[in-house]
Amino acid sequence: MDVSQSRQLHNLALVGFMGTGKTSVGQFLARMLHFRLVDTDDLIERRAGKPISAIFAEGGETRFRELECAVVGELSRYRRTVIATGGGLVTNPANMASLKTHALVVCLWASPEMIWRRVRHQSHRPLLNTPDPLATIRNLLSERERFYREADVLIGTDVRSVKAVALQVAHQFRMAQANHAIREE
Ligand code: S3P
To answer: Does residue 112 have its Cβ closer than 6 Å to ligand 1?
Structure first.
């Protein structure tokens, strides 16, 4: 992890594919760090006044990504916040760059099979409403891998509990903040 001096680490952003545990890990982390938790999908739904599924149905993925990008712009004003992001948010390099100006960016990673096991009983993700969702997960994950690898820290979640992942993320965050403070002295 190389967090340059010009960066601020006010917040902690969790990125990664659907079903990697961003929301559950985020809830745990927020309690541990005494931070607020925000979820970019919730912010988008509030701004748009409709659920993600309706945004996709009416304006397609393009409209959803526009709203997502606008929400990312707002996040730079946040302090002491754990930000759980939508799985495709960092496929726009401008979004990743924006997050990095105010947050440590941690990517949660999981195998396609584990992701499928975690999301198979849920139906609120338009991108997985396909005839073969596991194949969709495999394809999207391999297309997106290079974007996820741009995160400051990458943590595998296949064999770790939510608590173990949260502890690992908190440790990385504290180390990054300490290193940053030393370099600023
Ligand atoms: C998406 C992931 C979803 C949500 C939208 C698109 C994606 O968020 O933003 O359905 O492109 O991977 P979660 O990762 O929280 O499921």
So the answer is: no
Binning the chain into helix, strand and coil, the percentages to the nearest 5 are 60, 15, 25
pLDDT per position as a tens digit, 35-54: 999 999 999 999 999 999 99
Which of 22, 127, 129 is the best mutation target for the ligand 1 pocket, counting ligand atoms within 8 Å of the beta carbon and taking the most?
Answer: 127
Q: Which of 50-74 are b and which e, b meaning 16 or more Cβ less than 10 Å from the residue's Cβ?
A: eebeebbeeeeeeebbebbeebbee
Closest CA to 90 of 74, 110, 69, 104: 69
Matching residue, tokens 């393009």: 62
Give me the domains of the chain, ranges plus CATH numbers. Answer: 11-179 (3.40.50.300)
- Is the shortest distance between the CB of 144 and ligand 1 below 6 Å? no
- Which ligand 1 atom lies nearest to the CA of residue 22? 15
